[in-house]
Records
---
Amino acid sequence: MDYSSYLAGLFDGEGSFIVTVSLKKRRKGWSIVIYQWADIGLTTEDGKKLLEELAEWLRVREIHCWVKHDGNSTNYKNYTLRVSNILSLIKFCQLLNGELRLKQRLLENFELITRLRQERGSGLWVWSKKHHPRYKDNQLAYEWFEQIAIIWDYAREYEYRGRPWKGKYGDLREKLQVIWRRKFPED
C-alpha cells in the first residue's frame, strides 16, 4: 500500500518541523550544534498503531524513524513518529514535497537547511580558542549558523502569517546570539 498522500495529509494536520540551536559539551570544550527533526504526534492507541505502521512503511523506503511515547500521565498519552537523521530527513522531505497543502513552504525551507547541514558535514563544530586551533574560523561558522537561523525564522514567520514566532530567547537568530555571546565572549 502507498501511504504517501495519506502521510502528507496527516503531516499537514499533525506534523511539525523543528530546527533549534544548542550548546553541546564535548571533551575539549563546548560546541554549538543545530538539531533538526520532523515529528507527527497522535494521542490514542489507534494513533500509536497507525504511527508504527507508517514507521515500517518509511523504513522500507530507507527513512530511519521511530515511534516514541511521551509523557508519564495515565490520563494523557502522546505518541510521536520522529525522523532526525540528515539523510532520512532529505528522503522524508522528498517524499512529502509537492504533496503538502498547508506546510509546503515550511517543508522547502526545512529541506534547504537539511541540505546546508549535509554539505557542511563534520565542519559544523565551533570551539573556544583555548581548546582548538580552528577558532580562527569562528566568524565564518557564526555566519553559517546565522544563515540557517535567518532561513528558519523567515519560514516560521511566513507559517504564522506574518507574526514572528518567539521562543524563550526570541527567534532562532536571537537564540544563536545569546548562546554565542555566552560561550564565546571574546568574539
---
Amino acid sequence: MNIHKGKYKCTECGKYCQSRYFLAVHRKSHSGEKAFECTVCSKRFRTSRQLVVHSRIHTGEKPYRCHLCEKAFSVASILHAHVRVHTGDKPHKCSVCYKSFSHSGNLHTATPDRMTVLTVGSYLRQTVN
C-alpha cells in the first residue's frame, strides 16, 4: 500500500483518505451537506473549520501576523503568500515563457496568438512573437 495514498477509499469517486474522519468530511462534498451555519449571516459550511475561518469576516479577527512588517491576516495561507513580498520568492513558473511569479494567480495562460497575464482585477494582453 502507498503510505501517501491513505487506506480509506470513497466508494463514490475512488479518492483515498488518511482517516475515517477525513473520509466522512470528503463524502459531504458529494452529498452537498452543509451542517455548520453562521449565526450572523446564515451562510452554511461543510466543516466547522470553514465556519471558523468565515466568522472572521464578521469579527475582524486576524490572528496571523507577518513578523517582518506586522501586517495581519485572517487566513494562514494568505500570510504565507504575503511573506513572498519580503523574500522575493517566486515559486510559480510559467511553462510557456518561463517567467516566475510569487502567486499562482499571476501565471500566464497561453493562446495561439497572445498570452493573457492574469492580475488582480484586470487583464493585460501581450503579443506572443
---
Amino acid sequence: MCRNIERFSLYNQNHPTAAVKLLLAATIQWLLYFIFSPIHLMKSSFFAAPLAVLLVMAAELPAAQAQALRPATNQPVERARIRQGVSSGELTRPEAARLRAREANITATKQAARADGVVTPTERRVVRGEERRTSRAIYRQKHDGQVR
C-alpha cells in the first residue's frame, strides 16, 4: 500500500482522480486486510484513522472528478453571438457557417480531451486557445463591414 501511495501523490495535478482513486483503493484494501485477518481482537483505533481517511477521500472524489473533466467553456455565449450577428445582418450566412464549424471543432476537441477521464493542462490550454481564437474571429467577422 505504501509503495502505491508514494508513486501517486494526492496532489498530482496531471491525474487528480487517478491519485484519489488509488488512495481509496489502498485504504479499502488495508481495511479489508484487517477486518478479515485472523487476529480478531484488534483495537478500534486501527479502524478509526483509515475510516476517517476513507470518508474524507470519498467526499472529495466528486469534486476532483468535476475539476478534472470540466475545461472552461464559453460556447453558449459564442453561439448566441453568432445568432445575434446573423439576425442583425452583421454576419453573412457563409461567415456564420464557418464560425459554427469552428464551434463544432471546439466541441470535438473537448470530447477527445474528456475521453480518458482526465483533462490535462495541455489539453485545457489547447481548448482555451481555440475558444479565444474563435471569439476573436466572431468579433472580426461581425465588424468587417460586410452586410447581408
